[in-house]
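Quick one:
INPUT:
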């Protein structure tokens, strides 16, 4: 068996918790051999109980062709699903006023992403991982429409779990980058929500007892003046007022956020400066650019975009992902499935 167990202690803990949890994970993109290889690896490493979507004969034929062992895995064909009428009726209730007929619902349920989201919504699986062969918008649309945000969470956002080799910053090279894949131009209020939810993700999913969140800008504590900076400063204030128990601070420049000596010099009174393990970017441009540069220039492992704030976990993948990326995202989903987001 291919050894894909991660070397970073943070992901090792995630794996251990996933193995203990034995959650049920939907992998809908069975037309993609990476999904089938990942299903094999997830099963052999006992990370989750995998269900695949598709025509069983075609899925098994594809798996055999790519050398993936999926014997014994549950394969659901939405076109021949015994409970499809029940699913359609529930779908119609959830999307009342948005869809007009059962016929329209049935057409949507032919889409594996919508069908998979309904399986999770109705509790017949604990989470779904997709995005190897579908766009982020296609993956997240069913999640937003059917699963929606968790109680007490006002905004679903996306983050990347970044593991940077030979790095002493953050959590021994581990960071959350948020929002780097979801909200294009967050308001100050939305930035505050992203910061708070990212702290909960860091603590609850990755087991880091002290999340330290830096809200990034090109200014540190008033070193420059511009409306773009004002937004970040306001967001930090809102986040700290809403959750004074969390370590959130800004505005901070990137070096002031992660380098101890620079943090002490530029923001000596900050509880986060020089120590941040969560980086909240002012917009999707900066967040997405930063994660891709970190991945390529520093050789980082980047898992995501991972959704936070949904009532039940549906997580996206980069279309350039490897089977091992799918495996690790499935482990994260398995852990996320057992933890209410409002739990501090």
């Amino acid at each position: 068996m291919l050894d894909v167990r991660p070397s970073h202690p943070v992901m090792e803990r995630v794996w251990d918790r996933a193995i203990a949890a034995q959650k049920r994970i939907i992998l809908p993109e069975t037309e993609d051999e990476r999904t089938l290889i990942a299903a094999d690896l997830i099963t052999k490493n006992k990370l989750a109980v995998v269900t695949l979507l598709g025509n069983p004969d075609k899925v098994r034929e594809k798996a055999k062709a790519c050398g993936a062992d999926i014997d014994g895995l549950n394969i659901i064909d939405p076109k021949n699903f015994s409970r499809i009428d029940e699913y359609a009726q529930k779908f119609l209730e959830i999307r009342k006023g948005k869809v007009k007929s059962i016929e329209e619902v049935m057409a949507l349920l032919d889409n594996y992403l919508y069908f998979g989201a309904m399986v999770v919504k109705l509790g017949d699986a604990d989470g779904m991982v997709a995005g190897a062969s579908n766009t982020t918008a296609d993956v997240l649309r069913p999640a937003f429409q059917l699963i929606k945000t968790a109680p007490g969470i006002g905004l679903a956002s996306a983050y990347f779990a970044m593991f940077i080799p030979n790095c002493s910053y953050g959590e021994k090279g581990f960071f959350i980058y948020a929002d780097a894949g979801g909200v294009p131009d967050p308001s100050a209020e939305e930035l505050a929500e992203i910061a708070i939810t990212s702290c909960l993700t860091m603590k609850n999913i990755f087991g880091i007892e002290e999340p330290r969140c830096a809200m990034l800008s090109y200014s540190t504590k008033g070193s420059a003046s511009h409306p773009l900076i004002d937004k970040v400063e306001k967001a930090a204030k809102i986040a700290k007022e809403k959750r004074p128990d969390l370590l959130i601070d800004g505005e901070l420049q990137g070096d002031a956020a992660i380098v101890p000596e620079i943090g002490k010099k530029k923001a000596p009174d900050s509880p986060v400066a020089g120590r941040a393990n969560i980086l909240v970017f002012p917009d999707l441009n900066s967040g997405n650019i930063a994660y891709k540069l970190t991945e390529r220039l520093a050789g980082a492992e980047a898992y995501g975009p991972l959704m936070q704030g949904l009532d039940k976990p549906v997580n996206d993948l980069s279309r350039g992902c490897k089977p091992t990326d799918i495996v690790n995202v499935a482990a994260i989903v398995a852990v996320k499935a057992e933890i209410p987001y409002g739990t501090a």
